[in-house]
Amino acid sequence: DQPVYRTFVLQNTGTTPIHYKFEEDPMGLFCVKPMSGVIQDTLAIIMVRFLANQAKMYRYQLACILNTKHKIVFTLLASVETPTVITPNPGSTLHFTPQAVGSFTTQNYCVQNTSRLPLSLEWKTLPTDDSFDISPMSSVIKPNNKEVFEVTFCPKEDKLYRWTRPFSVHHEASQREKLSVTFSGKGNYPTLTCTPDEIDFSIAVVGRESKKTVSLINPNSCDAPYSLLIEETRNCVAILSKTSGILAGYGREELQVSFIPIEEATDCVIKIYCQLYHKSSLLLTVRGSGTYPKLSFVDIRSLVPGTLSTASKKRLWDLFSLDLLNKYLKDIPEPKELRHLMETRSNARNKSVKTKALAAVDFGSNSLSSQSSKVMVVLQNTGNVSASFRFLFPEDLNLDIVTWAESEESYAEDYVDPSECFSIEPREGTIEPGKKTISYFYVQASYCGTERATYTAESPPRTRVIPADAWRYPRQQQGLPPVCALQPHPQPHQDRISQPTDSVLRVIQRQ
User: Is-contact 132 153, C-beta < 8 A?
Assistant: First the structure.
C-alpha cells in the first residue's frame, strides 16, 4: 500500500525530433508520467510509480512507441515485502529466576529482522509497573540483522510478578505491526540459617586460636547477597573465614569460625549477625572462656646428703622462694614484660629489659668438690588446660659473650659456665590439668666464692623477659643478693601474641 518511485532518461542522439508514447498498464500497478511527449535535441526524464497491495514479485513489460512506428520495450521488476520479525518462542513467557527483594537480575531479549527492509522497533511505555525495565526503548533493525534488548527485573515486594509489554514494528511511514511479550518473575525476602546456630569453644588458652566449622544455609529459591557483622567484646575476639558473599538458592556454604580470648574470662559471648538488604538478624552465637596455663609449686624435698639434707620442708620452701614464685605465677603480667619470640631474649643488644619477677633460689653453702646437692620440686597444673614448661640455660638462648663483656660490671676472666655448676632434670615437659610432675635441681661446688646462674622457665603461651644482667656469670668472692623469678604472662591478640611464657630462675650457691 506504499508507492515506490523510480526514474529513467530518454535521450535523442539524432537531429530529428522524436515523438514517444507509453502504453498503459491494464492492472494499474505501474504508472508512467509523462505518458507521451516530443524529444528535440535534448532528453526526457520519465518517472515510474509502483503501487501494489500483495506481497510478491511483479514483472511488467512497459512498451514505448516512437514516431508511431517503432516500439521499445522496458522490463520493470518490483517486489512487495511485509515487515516481519522473529522473536524467541513467540507467544511464550520470558521467565526470571526468583530474586531477592531489592536486588536485580537481567536477561536478553533478541528480535531479528527477516525482511529486506530496515525496520523501526519501539517499546510502549507503561508506568503501571517499575519492576521491569527494558533498554534501549527503541531501535532501527537493519535487514537480516538482530537487535538485543536488555530486560532488568528488580522486585519491590515479596510476590509473583507478571508483565506484558507491547511493542510495534514498522518501516518508515507504513502501518505499524503491534506485538507483545510477557515477562514473569518472583520476589522473595531471603533468610539465611546457620547449623549449628550456637557453638561452644569451652575453655581456650588466652591468645591461642581455636577453630570450628559451621554451615551457612540458604533455604530460599533466590540468591541471597549477605554481609556478616561480628559484635565487639572486650575480652575475646571472633574471626570468620568469610564475611560477605552471595549464597545461591537452596545452597550451602562452609564457614570457619575462630575464637581467640584476649584475657582471662569466663563465659565469653560473641553474637554474629547476618545483614540482608539493611535488615540484620542474629545468625550465630559463639561462647567460650579464656584461661592461662597455671602452674604452682606444691612440694619440695632434699634428696642427697649436703647442706640442705637436714633442712626442713619449710626451710627449703623459703630458700627456694616458692611462695613468691607461686605469687608471680598467678599475677597478670605488664605489657612491657610480654615477648614475641620463641626464645626469651632482649631485642636490644646492650639495653637491659627489667622484669619484676625476681626471687632467690638459694642452695646455701657447701664445701669445695663436695657431693652434689639435689633438690626435688613438685610442679602441679592447677588450671583447666594442659601446661607446657621448659627451663632454658643461657647457652640455649644463643647469647654472645660480647654482649655482657662490654658491660663495665663484668669481665671476661670472671665468666663461669653455669652448666659446670648447675643442672635441672627434666628441662621440659607437659602437665595435664590436675596432674603433677617432678623436677630435680642439682648444684656442684666447683669454685670458691659465690656462683650465680640464670635459668629461664617457659610456660606457653606466656613469656617473660630476661634482664640483661642475668646473662652474666661472674665468679666473685663477695656474696651477692640471691634473685629468682618465675612468672607466666598472658598472650594478647594480634600484635601482642606471644609464643612461650618465660620466667627467670637465678640460682645461687655460696661456697
Answer: yes
Do 418 and 393 contact (CB within 8 A), yes or no?
yes
Contacts of 67 (CB under 8 A, 6+ apart): 18, 19
CA–CA gap between residue 97 and residue 127 (Å, rounded): 23
DSSP class of residue 412 equals G
HSE (side-chain half, CA atoms, 13 Å) at 202: 3
CA 86 to chain centre: 46
Max CA distance (Å), the chain: 160
pLDDT digits (tens, 9 = 90+) for 232-282: 888 899 999 999 998 988 899 999 999 999 888 888 999 999 988 778 899
CB atoms within 10 A of CB 267: 8
Q: pLDDT (tens digit, 9 = 90+) per residue, 343-395? A: 444 444 444 444 555 667 777 666 666 667 788 899 999 888 888 887 776 66
Beta bridge mates, 44: 10
Beta-bridge mates of residue 5: 49
pTM of the complete model beyond 0.85? no
Task: Return the DSSP state at 459.
Answer: B
Helix (H) or strand (E) holding 316: helix 313-319
Indicate the pairing of strand 244-247 with strand 236-240.
unpaired
String of DSSP letters for 50-86: E--SS-SEEEEEEEEEETTTEEEEEEEEEE-----EE
CA neighbor of 188 nearest in space, from 222, 217, 214, 219:
222
Please choose, from the candidates 118, 112, 117, the residue with its C-alpha nearest in 3D space to the C-alpha of residue 145.
112
How open is the CA angle 336-337-339, to the nearest 5 degrees?
Answer: 100
- Find residue 184's DSSP bridge partners: 95, 162
CA distance 331 to 337: 12
Q: Which residue has the cell 503491534?
A: 178
**Residue 289: closest CA among 236, 330, 333, 231:** 236
DSSP letter string, 183-197: EEEEEE----EEESS
Interatomic CA distance for residues 160 and 183, integer angstroms: 11
CA quadruple 203, 206, 210, 215: dihedral positive or negative? positive
Query: What Cα–Cα distance (Å) separates residue 110 from each residue in 13, 145, 148, 236?
Result: 56, 10, 4, 56
Region of residue 116 (left: phi > 0; alpha: psi -120 to 50; beta: else)? alpha
Tell me the one-letter amino acid at 25: D
Secondary structure E strands in 114-242: 119-123, 132-135, 138-141, 146-153, 160-170, 177-188, 193-195, 198-205, 210-217, 224-230, 236-240
pLDDT digits (tens, 9 = 90+) for 261-275: 988 888 899 999 998
Peptide bond into 488 cis (omega under 30): no
Torsion (CA) 203, 208, 212, 216 in degrees, nearest 10: 120
